[in-house]
Recover the amino acids of this structure.
């Protein structure tokens, strides 16, 4: 992947229009980064310029500072990886104090992923972040465990997805993206709940809950026993869920899950996503998102596509 | 549309050979090995072929040696899992994509008396360090391993340098019979038991982990995923342990022992030792840190932790320090011994 010698072939054709509109969010191109795989955008500057992307999504934010789970926090699995970072982040106030100004220096859009352990957490986060113009939108992570309800993830209960979405939307004027958990029987039901709650955009999928065991030591590989599976292994599941939601719900979608190259990204666009997020691939090649964007542009030239919007949800048959 | 970016550079394998029971040495030719390539830093190798993702993640390797003139870097690795097994089968002429050098390197003093303590494969990053420091400093290396075969290669390579080498093996097949830490204490003239009266920090940590595990097993707590309260609780327990009266006699004893050591002339010894470097198994690092803390000898440690990205974005490889969590790949892998909590 990192060795591909992609160079863009201009041969006298029109430069494709890559702009996409996701409800209230206008992006210059459909390639984004997924939360937790791109830090705060500054760590990758040695390898690429984040400003060429449609948007970046920064590390998940919680009200209180969170030190995260014990190590090992990562485990390689066939064509994938498990992670249980445990939402390590400096907390809301320190984020505002130390990070927001730096995020304002990006010329591309910055989305902030928010996580909570109670409905109240989401209320605090959305209220407090509402005044900051440096933030282009909030991505609401409903995959964390809900302490008030015995640790069951918010994202597996449509009533809670609805409630959180509605409460965030009531307090935050900008675009609200709800990031859906795939750890459910019916993803459309969750998408519907977020839609009814007033979500502007849906992003999917978050990681799939999994685990790995070291048989020699008879121990779980992750310090936290279970973790989220990502990478190429989850792509077919993610693609299917994006397709299902796109068919059923009239909201713009950000597709993600195991996107490693431009062909993967194009699959998501064809399945109905208006934009894609690159996640795990960033960990292997910090310039992966840029390579993917280049590949999409090349595809447009090859296929004589003038406007990227013409391929969104454009499966034949 | 032209998008500017730095592509990870491929390096050509010049040599990849077995140099010990499970040790392999890989020499890679790359372009411009400049002043950024310093001891203690690491490269992040993509083992899978271009366009493929298996194994998915890169593998970090500390710089074993570099040849600035010919742009060659040497990595020493041990076959421990699937990635290193695949790596051991690569042949010269093949290209490997890598990121680096990454992380922070060792500090490079001049005119100091230095002790370096390496355990097994952990000795690898100390070679380039010793090679670069040997001209300007007086260095003693303590090399520890289970068997003679664990230290053979290092003994040979470090033998090229103008440093003093002392070897410890668990079975006594080479050098001193015992651990690297035992030999370190002997070298420093420290009474073997004088600083092991208080619970060692690794015992405290494993106690904390046990507390955490016990909490995790409580059914109601199992899915809450919130480590914060557990950590606080553990800290509280640690505090209680420290404050509990039962520990006091040990502490007094330890002070007496320390005094004895001082009386036995350790102050003179200490004057001769300015700085410590160490890398190896955590139990060894913890013991070296304890000696360093006890006698106020500054030092640096190279830490290892399961890594994801290697550039500070995924927060997989954190370690606990006086300043909270630090990323081994970004703020490390070299940390001040005084700063890390082992």
């Amino acid at each position: 992947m990192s060795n591909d010698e992609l160079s863009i072939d201009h041969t006298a054709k029109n430069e494709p229009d890559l702009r996409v509109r996701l409800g209230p969010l206008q992006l210059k191109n459909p390639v984004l980064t997924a939360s937790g795989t791109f830090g705060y955008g500054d760590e990758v500057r040695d390898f690429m310029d984040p400003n060429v992307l449609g948007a970046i999504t920064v590390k998940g934010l919680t009200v209180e500072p969170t030190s995260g789970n014990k190590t090992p926090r990562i485990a390689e699995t066939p064509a994938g990886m498990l992670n249980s970072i445990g939402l390590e982040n400096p907390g809301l106030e320190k984020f505002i104090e130390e990070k927001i100004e730096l995020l304002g220096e990006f010329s591309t859009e910055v989305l902030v992923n928010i996580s909570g352990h109670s409905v109240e957490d989401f209320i605090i986060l959305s209220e407090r972040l509402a005044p900051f113009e440096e933030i282009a939108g909030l991505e609401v992570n409903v995959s964390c465990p809900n302490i008030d309800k015995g640790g069951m993830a918010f994202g597996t209960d449509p009533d809670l997805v609805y409630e959180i979405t509605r409460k965030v939307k009531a307090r935050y004027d900008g675009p609200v993206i709800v990031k859906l958990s795939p750890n459910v029987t019916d993803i459309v039901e969750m998408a519907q709940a977020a839609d009814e709650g007033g979500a502007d955009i849906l992003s999917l999928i978050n990681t799939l809950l999994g685990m790995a065991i070291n048989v020699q030591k008879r121990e779980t590989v992750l310090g936290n026993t279970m973790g989220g599976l990502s990478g190429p292994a989850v792509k077919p599941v993610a693609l299917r869920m994006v397709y299902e939601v796109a068919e059923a719900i009239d909201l713009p979608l950000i597709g993600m899950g195991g996107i490693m190259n431009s062909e993967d990204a194009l699959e998501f666009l064809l399945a109905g996503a208006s934009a894609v997020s690159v996640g795990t691939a960033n960990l292997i090649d910090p310039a992966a998102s840029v390579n993917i964007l280049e590949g999409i542009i090349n595809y447009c030239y090859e296929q004589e596509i003038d406007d990227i919007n013409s391929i969104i949800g454009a499966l034949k048959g | 549309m032209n998008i500017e970016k730095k592509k990870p550079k491929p390096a050509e394998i010049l040599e990849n050979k077995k140099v010990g029971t499970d040790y392999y040495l890989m020499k890679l030719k790359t372009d411009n090995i400049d002043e950024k390539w310093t001891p203690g830093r690491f490269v992040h190798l993509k083992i899978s072929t271009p366009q493929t993702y298996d194994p998915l993640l890169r593998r970090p390797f500390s710089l074993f040696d570099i040849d600035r003139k010919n742009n060659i870097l040497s990595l020493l690795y041990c076959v421990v899992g699937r990635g290193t097994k695949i790596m051991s089968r690569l042949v010269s002429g093949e290209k490997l994509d890598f990121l680096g050098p990454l992380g922070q390197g060792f500090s490079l003093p001049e005119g100091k008396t230095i002790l370096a303590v390496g355990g097994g494969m952990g000795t690898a990053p100390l070679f380039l360090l010793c090679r670069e420091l040997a001209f300007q400093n007086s260095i003693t290396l303590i090399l520890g391993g289970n068997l003679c075969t664990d230290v053979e290669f290092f003994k040979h390579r470090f033998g090229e340098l103008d440093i003093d080498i002392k070897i410890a093996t668990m079975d006594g097949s080479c050098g001193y019979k015992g651990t690297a830490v035992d030999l370190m204490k002997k070298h420093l003239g420290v009474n073997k038991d004088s600083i092991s009266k208080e619970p060692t920090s690794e015992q405290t940590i494993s106690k904390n982990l046990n507390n955490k595990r016990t909490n995790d097993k409580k059914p109601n707590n199992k899915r809450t995923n919130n480590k914060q309260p557990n950590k606080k609780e553990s800290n509280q327990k640690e505090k209680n342990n420290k404050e509990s009266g039962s520990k006091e006699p040990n502490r007094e004893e330890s002070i007496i022992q320390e005094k004895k050591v001082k009386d036995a002339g350790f102050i003179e010894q200490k004057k001769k030792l300015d700085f410590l470097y160490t890398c190896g198994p955590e139990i060894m690092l913890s013991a070296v840190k304890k000696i360093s803390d006890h006698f106020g000898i500054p030092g640096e440690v190279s830490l290892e932790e399961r890594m994801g990205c290697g550039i500070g974005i995924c927060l997989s490889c954190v370690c606990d320090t006086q300043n909270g969590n630090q990323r081994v790949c970004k703020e490390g892998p070299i940390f001040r011994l005084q700063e890390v909590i082992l």
